[in-house]
Amino acid sequence: MQKLTRTSKLILLCCSLLLATTATAQKNAPVLYGPDDNGKVYTSIEDALKATSPVYRLKITKLPKRDSLPDDLFLLTELRELTVKGCKLNVLNQRIRELKHLQHLNLEHNKLLRLPEEIGELTDLRTLIVNRNILETFPESIQKLHNLVYIDAWDNPLYVLPESISKLENTLRTLDLRQIPLTKWELEAMERLLPKTDILFTDICECENRRDHN
């Protein structure tokens, strides 16, 4: 009987390990957006435009010297994931609204001063990454992004949120504002707008470049 108990425990342990391994593999597996999706990430607009099947992922880290995105990019209307990282963009084109299926938009490490109101038309958007830009606020239209669960906006001079963002209080789970020297009052104002959101911030005393609030 004791031998059977040990065997049973061993079987249970093996089953647990198998389930844990399967769960980890599923978690790390790329999201597929359709039966014709092979998980490919394109790294140039030119290659993406030559594709014979829908393009769901585009990651750009180099662009010819320019202030905004090239018009050809907006021909890729099936995009679900768009990353434009470290390309010194000053302006996000109003045509971004044409990429209406976008779920993940990454614009980190550019020189964006603002986001266009048209971003509010990306109603499938789930994650918005705009860290290391020069944003001072979000557009009022952000209130329309009811599928948005995560915003990464750290290291921007973003000290005030538009009141319209309160429309996302039940859906926005995380707002990352680290490396932004918020005062106690600025943080409290944000928490009133988004009482259910986890707001990540850096205490003003922890920042190297402190603002003068006098």
Provide a descriptive summary of the structure in words.
The structure is a single chain. This protein is of the alpha/beta class. It has a domain at 38-164: Leucine-rich repeat, LRR (right-handed beta-alpha superhelix), CATH 3.80.10.10. Helix content is 20%, strand content 15%. The protein is built from three helices and seven strands. It has a seven-stranded parallel beta sheet with strand order 1-2-3-4-5-6-7, with helices on one face. Helix 3 (184-193) links the parallel strand 6 and strand 7. The protein is globular. The chain starts with a helix and ends in an 11-residue tail after the last strand. Mean pLDDT is 87; it is low at 20-27.
According to CATH, the fold-level topology of one domain is Leucine-rich repeat, LRR (right-handed beta-alpha superhelix)
Order of helices and strands: HHEEEEEEHE
Mass-distribution shape? globular
Looking at CATH, the homologous superfamily of one domain is Ribonuclease Inhibitor
What is the name of the CATH architecture of one domain? Alpha-Beta Horseshoe
Q: What is the CATH level 1 assignment of one domain?
A: Alpha Beta
- Please work out how many helical segments DSSP would assign: 3
How much strand?
A: 5-15%
**What does the largest sheet look like?**
7 strands, parallel
Q: Radius of gyration from the CA trace?
A: 22 Å
